Amino acid sequence: MSEEKKQYEISYLARTEADKDAVLKVLGGAGAENLEEGRLSEIKLAYPVKKQTSAYFGSTVFEAAPEAIAKINDSLKFTEGILRFLIVTPPAKKSHPRFGGKERMPEEAPMAEETKTEEAPAEKEESAEPEIKEAKTEIDDAALDEKLEEILTNTK
Fold it and tell me: Using one digit for the tens of pLDDT, what is the confidence trace for 84-103?
């Protein structure tokens, strides 16, 4: 059996506040060490679970050997006061900033100067490349159907 312990988090729905102790007892019996206990709060369930319409929701962060998780699962399945539970490994905290280290520009920030400037009128006339207009044009359905038919017949 491996001595290396990993961090896990269990979230559960209990019938009563006293059933929180049952979860802690199962964790302790499996050799888990509690690191952080979440607040137990009463919630209304969206649908009945084991004929209950409300339950106490709680969570606990703990460390345990990976082999002990199966034992914890089996024990909690048959604990009467626990309606549902889920054991997950908490996600690793990222040390690097989001978006590849690049900061996002605020939406109200002005555009860069190079994108604002336009070519001088003399330079536009000398340009050999035709200017591409980015204006949106509306196409009626009939013209679109004709173009699609033309494309489909050319590919066959």
Answer: 999 998 877 766 555 555 55
